[in-house]
Amino acid sequence: MMNGISLNQNISNSYGDIYNLGYAKNAANSDGKEKIGQVSKTECQTCKNRKYVDGSNESNVSFKTPGHIDPSSSAALVSAHERQHVGNAVNEGSKKGNKLLSVNVSLKTSVCPECGRVYVSGGETRTVMKKSLEEETKLNPYNEGEELVKRFLMQGMNVDLAA
After folding, report:
1. Residue 139, domain member (yes or no)
2. 127/123 Cα distance (integer angstroms)
3. Are 18 and 10 spatial neighbours (Cβ–Cβ below 8 Å)?
4. Residue 142 included in any domain
5. Which domain, by its residues, includes 14?
6. Which pTM was predicted?
7. Residue 26 has what pLDDT?
């Protein structure tokens, strides 16, 4: 406090951590010494209230219910979550008749509008899988009806008119 006015300044380091520089003149520590330029870490409310949730239809992955991730560990946790999706794709690709052609994982970053911290805001796993013909037939309920329509249309195509 200088002349009855408290001077507080927020600074951030290269990792995005916010520090509050509170200059306290003539304030005493517990040991009686004066403290000037004390640095205390403050938490951004936007980062504190941010929730992550998985939007996929896979039930055995994390973040099916909204959960908080600290911005400093968001890259590691979102990467681990996406590895769960990759593991599911590898398991599906190892089944008989399936072949996993490719897996691509993308992590998305954002900047917090309040504190300016860069964090991993989400991820996406894309897989390309080739399934066997009988598996494709089971998955598509219209295949059986399509075969019936084709047989019906083909019945009159070859008519022998010789009598």
Report:
1. no
2. 13
3. yes
4. no
5. 7-42
6. 0.58
7. 44
